[in-house]
Amino acid sequence: MKRNGETKRRRNVAEEAEQGGEDPAMWENLDRNFRQVQSVLDRNRSLIQQVNDNHQSKMADNMSKNVALIQELNGNISKVVSMYSNINTKFSSAFHGGNNGHEGGGGGAGTRAN
């Protein structure tokens, strides 16, 4: 059910952008990038819950598993920071004369506007 609401919201954002003379592809890309960030944040929530469960169990094996879980969590935090930085660069470029706000699809770095 959440998917239908997301689809309608994305469609409305694109339609509003077209009517306002804005670039709908840029907004769709921004939406896609934020969904990628949310995916990593959801994974982090799961990792934190696993770490808490392992810690509460006080079992040696579970406690040792936390090392790898916390390492993944730390890597994901760095990834989120990088993703937000890329979103900021693309969004700023799009509004300061550049058109690379909708280039590519992934979380790769865009070209910075001078």
Report on this structure:
The chain has three helices and no strands. The chain has helices spanning 2-19, 24-57, 60-95. Helix 1 (2-19) packs antiparallel against helix 2 (24-57) and helix 2 (24-57) runs antiparallel to helix 3 (60-95). It has a domain at 59-84. Helix content is 77%, strand content 0%. It has 114 residues and is mainly alpha-helical. The longest helix is centred in the last third of the chain and has 36 residues, at 60-95.
Profile the largest sheet.
none
State the end-to-end distance: 43 Å
Structural class: mainly alpha
The coarse overall form would be: elongated
In total, the number of strands is 0
Q: Which regions are unreliable across 5 or more consecutive residues at pLDDT < 50?
A: 100-114
Rg on CA atoms, Å: 19 Å
* Count of discrete alpha- or pi-helical segments spanning 4 or more residues: 3
| Helical content band | over 70%
Mean pLDDT over all positions: 79
Percent of sequence in beta strands:
under 5%
What is the H/E string?
HHH
Protein name: Protein EARLY FLOWERING 4 domain-containing protein
Family: Belongs to the EARLY FLOWERING 4 family.
Biased composition (Gly residues): 98-114
Keywords: Biological rhythms, Nucleus
